[in-house]
Amino acid sequence: MIPRKKHTTAPPATPASGAPRAQRTGSRTGHAGERVGGGLFEPKQLLLSLPDAVRKLDPRVMVKSPVMFVVLVGSVLSTVFAAVNPGDWFGWAVAAWLWLTTLFANLAEAVAEGRGKAQADTLRRAKTDTVARRLAGGAEERVPGTELRVGDHVVCEAGDIVPGDGDVTEGIASVDESAITGESAPVIRESGGDRSAVTGGTKVLSDRIVIRITARPGETFIDRMIALVEGAARQKTPNEIALNILLASLTVVFLLAVVTLQPFAAYAHAEQSVIVLVALLVCLIPTTIGALLSAIGIAGMDRLVQRNVLAMSGRAVEAAGDVSTLLLDKTGTITFGNRQAAEFVPVRGVTEAELADAAQLSSLADETPEGRSVVVLAKEKYGLRERHQGELAGAEWVAFTAQTRMSGVDLDDDGARRRVRKGAAGSITAWVGERGGRIADDAADLTERISAAGGTPLLVALEDADGARVLGVIHLKDVVKAGMRERFDELRRMGIRTVMITGDNPMTARAIAAEAGVDDFLAEATPEDKMALIRREQAGAKLVAMTGDGTNDAPALAQADVGVAMNTGTSAAKEAGNMVDLDSDPTKLIEIVEIGKQLLITRGALTTFSIANDVAKYFAIIPAMFAVVYPGLDTLNVMRLSSPESAILSAVVFNALIIVALVPLALKGVRYRPMTADRMLRRNLAVYGLGGLVAPFVGIKIIDLIISLIPGIR
Amino acid sequence: MSPVLAGVLQLLALVAALALAYRPLGDHMARVYSSVRHLRVEKWIYRCIGADPAANLRWPAYLRGVLAFSAVSVLFLYLLQRLQGGLPGSLGFASIDPDQAFNTAASFVSNTNWQSYAGEQAMGHLVQTGGLAVQNFLSAAVGMAVAVALVRGFARSRTGELGNFWADLVRGTVRILLPLSLIGAIVLVACGAVQNFAGVHEVGQFLGGSQQWRGGAVASQEAIKELGTNGGGYFNANSAHPFENPNPFSNLFEIFLILLIPFALTRTFGRMTGSLRQGYAILAAMVAIWIAFVALMMWTEFHHGAPAYDIAGGALEGKETRFGVAGSSLFAVSTTLTSTGAVNSALSSFTGFGGGIAMLGMQLGEIAPGGVGSGLYGVLIMAVIAVFLAGLMVGRTPEYLGKKIGGREIKLAALYILITPALVLCFTAVALALPTPRDSLLNTGPHGFSEILYAYTSAANNNGSAFAGLAADTPWFNTSLGMVMLLGRFLPMVFVLALAGSLAERSPVPETSGTLRTDKPLFSGLLIATIVIVAALTYFPALALGPLAEGLAS
Question: What is the ipTM of this complex?
Fold first, then answer.
């Protein structure tokens, strides 16, 4: 959470304060189920956003949503006609609820925006006016940060705030980036390589660096972040535009149906009041989705922000839902990135326990991660307690060095000398050979087999009274993170192909790919290979998502439909991608895809719900309008509503309240679980289609019961 | 045998016959529209009209062809009627008045075949056979051409080209409609339909006395009238007339002809898009709606509770006894769910609900199975809308047949579905608000309202059937209905062709397990729901004041 750290101290005017924290940790665990939840929703947010909602009643703002603009016009019309006949409670009641409908729609948007505003405020505080120490012809001059131009060189020393985005050209420094990432541990920034980018607003903690400015003031990363979380830069996404067109045309259809109804009614001698017609119109047009549409979009972006991902455009979030090929870097994403002991394979005549014991003893003096992993494996798999170097009397430790590529221990066992060694195959073979020992026939087979499987073999040897000999092999391998296979299975069900990108040789790559369960791999990958792969996929009209951090990733990031740059990466990479992950966690790509899908599903579900609602409203309003002249039509009053006025008002009230009731769903997004399209459709149709058909019948009936209890009405 | 059982058996026989013809005809039409060869007669026609059948047209050019050809057709038909009095073969009938000539020209070119004239009292052999019957072929071929262009839009990628209108028009006529209507005419003649120029026939009447009827090319016009979902009868009584529709078998055969091409086009669609299953999914939705409407219609017409009906065994008023309630219901549903509009009974005399079912059938957009061509493109537009909603619910940008459905596609589809309701509701409202049109009403109350609503529903959907009781041969109705027919036919075609062009330019998206399957029963169900909900929501208030108020009153 970007501004989370500051949130705890933020003033109460930050509706979203603290809410996303639980979500973010939840999002990391990677369990199936509600993986992409949203922020929590608190009813008091509605109250706090009320002033903003009232401000949004401005017709110039409302006209952007055709559906809600019609409601606004309807509210004005009904108020005018209520004022013409001020003694009629019904007219005033309908007018009041129509205004509430409009207000609720604005409220939904205001609540969604409110969360971003709070985050923007804290970011603004980080972006205090800085004084830059600009280098001009070898001399240093102090200028305001706002006067910096691209290409200027500035100096920052310990305690200085970096005045703008740029690349380090000289020196190395530790930098506190918590203002941007929320992560308090300092990071190292140095000239050259892939860790040269610094961001304006961050603080240099030690040393001195020279920075070449790469962004103009006002266009820096932090500026863009503020604009994004505030929603100022929000543009309607392609899909949102398409949906808006559909909603607008539905509105036109209903407008026609209602406007032409008056002459029909007049022919039947049942002319209707303008208030009733407006009520009918507002109930029919898709107000539910019309009111929540922009809130859904804002909340979708917000869900990414809560996961510390900044999407540079809503288009990218939508594209994420459509991704059909996911390029994942092996190291850090699929595997932990260092080799670990996975099993002990003894040669014939040696038990696994003997080998494990020897392996552990010989690795105690090996402080490399690989050596530690041998000890860990011995403990976890064979229950061998870790022995400390001090507790073995008379032991002589042989530490691992890069020269010997071997570690071990010489023990004094009742006078007999026992030497245990483990190390690279070549080193151990030589060691055994020197001691006139023999190499078991199957040892060579074992090492070959492990190499073939993409692993690294380490030999374990022993010299005691029986002479020197090889006991077996330690299988070191690149360990695939837990749960990756399941995630890839889910992705496959969602119709997404995963491709692992690695610099390893094809043999190793194939083994890891098979273990992780990815669909394909690209071995010995160069940036050009990556680019070619993306182009190839795109030629088949597939949408490609990838992560990257290095400068040489930039072209591929730009080419990919969804390019997630790591915040630790170079500014070139961050510039090229359309999303930045502030946590620099490549596995997040999977969550981004899910958020993109969830965004579309929420829109579709609420649209379906909104349209299905109309059926019940017709059954409430049409008999109320015409049963007077055609008594047979009272048969359609299946809800047995108490009076025509109450029936129409109940439909209007339901229509308004359902918006508020669905605000939490719009902000959180509908529940998303990876499954095939067919199952998902079946489920969502049942919940939102059938639910949308039935819910208003129940809701309108309940409201009617309440209204009919009010004395003086009927 | 009880009349209900007879009705069910007729239905089964019809379904069996349609099922038998489905594959060969659907495949034949796919071959016709995909073939690169030209018949000699076709080459001759292309030379005559100066068209290059090999030119692949983009959508504006294709549309220009459709509109230009139809405009010329309207003009020709108009002049033919206006000059009838001075031309040979007029049988002594005078020239037609301007407003009625316009109405009839618009009606036949738009495949509506609304008739404000009585055939036997106004039109001579030349106009009937040389004008109206010709349009029965050509307007049907135009509809099929537009549908095929849309199918090509789905099937083709990264090109804007939709094929050649002139080739599609000529082939549809020469290789599909002409041979089939030839067979149809022979069968009808065998049944006893009239086909001669032998002058006046003296026909004895049931209660004594006799009538004089002139013959003509009746059977041949009858065949294309049904096959091309036209519906314009040679005689005023349309398919209730014994010369047009002599017996129960010819009745069933005519229903078969009505439904033949519209259903089979789904097979053509599946063939041309490379996935027969996609065609079946569309077919399933069409069949389900059609069967449901038949069942509803039979139920309401058989089980209308009133003493007279109980004695007669159903609502027999306005129905021919030789067809019965079942044969009439089956015909009425099939004619209003397609754009045919031929009638073998008086729709106005159906029960309140029965008339409503006929009206709702048209208001669904005539897509189950719809007119020749227009049914297919109408249902595909609804499929685009259904895919858009459902596609969102599976978390992807919606796609249909591998084509992404974006803002442009939705805009065109939405405009398409807007036009017909706009025409129906606005013109009905204006007609009711004006004093003169109301003078044409024979009835008052809900039924009177239904008469006007039915007229504009029928015209805007290019159906052509009518609630008799409306005196439609007035300048207002001739003019306004003529305009509605033309707008209801050609504006949607503009959007269909624009959509086809837009789709043809898109790259195909490969199908994955994350893609919404559109060849499954679930999708057929969703399509039905979309069609029904869109129509029901649009027309519910109007229907409530007409057929529902009438049906619920008794």
Answer: 0.92
